[in-house]
Design brief:
With 257 residues, this protein is an alpha/beta fold. Strands 1, 2, 3, 4, 5, 6, 7 and 8 form an eight-stranded parallel beta sheet that branches. Strand 6, helix 7 and strand 7 form a beta-alpha-beta unit.
């Protein structure tokens, strides 16, 4: 998500859940609804510095473009999953036949694995959004950065039933050269955004829609949220935006890999 001022107490309540992350069992079930499914156990911390035999490194540059080309739009949903809002977002996406990329906080994925599985089963992609959504990660040590990325990868992969995240989005855009390289070595393309809808601030549905329409010429990747508070405005904005952009000739895709 975009870097916002003020405290993020909602995340503070779940940070403790990041401790004691367990390695995936080798016999974990594999979900095939999304590219990037794995057939073995998650990578261990000892092997985290370099890709394992079943992990293919990807480009370290921050992705913004859509795999649908010049008229493509990428819907990205941050901070969940959330038991109230993620199902509603999924319903709207299903209604309009749109696939999205869900940037999940590790502790949220761990707390709601059934929702992670629903996201994957619906054909959406997963993105690592760190363990605890620390927007000051770029000021922390490399060891801390790698722990946040790797442990979140494990949490999300375990919750999904074996599907690894395909992208890494730094909380608040707090990327560093090291974090981008580390994520890419784990097969997760660093993911940016072009349009911050400001839905996190709950400016009103009309304002969210207007932001998308005004700023879409800046690039195809739109940032929304499905957790961290009341997301009813986001749900309603998506209900209005998705068919409107289709009518304007846009196609919905995924960020380039």
């Amino acid at each position: 998500m975009a870097r916002h001022g003020g405290g993020r107490g909602w995340y503070g309540k779940v940070v403790g859940a990041a401790l004691g992350v367990t390695v995936l069992a080798a016999g974990a079930a594999v979900w095939t609804a999304q590219a990037g499914a794995v057939g073995g156990s998650a990578p261990t911390a000892a092997a985290s510095a370099t890709p394992g035999s079943d992990v293919k490194a990807v480009d370290v540059t921050i992705a913004h473009a859509s795999d649908k080309g010049a008229r493509g739009v990428n819907i990205t949903i941050d901070d969940g999953p959330d038991p109230v809002w993620t199902p509603q977002v999924l319903d709207v996406l299903r209604e309009y036949g749109v696939k999205a990329t869900f940037c999940m906080v590790g502790t949220q994925a761990q707390a709601h694995p059934e929702l992670v599985k629903q996201v994957v089963a619906a054909g959406h992609r997963l993105c690592d959004h760190s363990v605890s959504h620390d927007t000051t990660m770029d000021k922390k040590s490399e060891a801390y950065q790698s722990q946040q990325i790797l442990d979140a990868e494990r949490m999300i992969t375990e919750a999904s039933g074996g599907v690894r995240p395909m992208y890494y989005r730094a909380p608040g855009g707090a990327f560093t050269p090291y974090s981008r390289k580390f994520a890419a070595s784990r097969g997760m393309r660093p993911l940016g955004w072009n349009v911050d809808t400001k839905d996190f601030e709950r400016p009103g549905t009309d304002a969210i829609v207007a932001t998308v329409e005004r700023e879409l010429p800046n690039g195809p990747t739109l940032l929304f949220h499905d957790a961290g508070g009341d997301r009813s405005q986001t749900v309603e904005a998506l209900r209005r935006i998705l068919p409107r952009l289709k009518e304007q000739g846009y196609s919905y895709g995924f960020p380039v890999r």
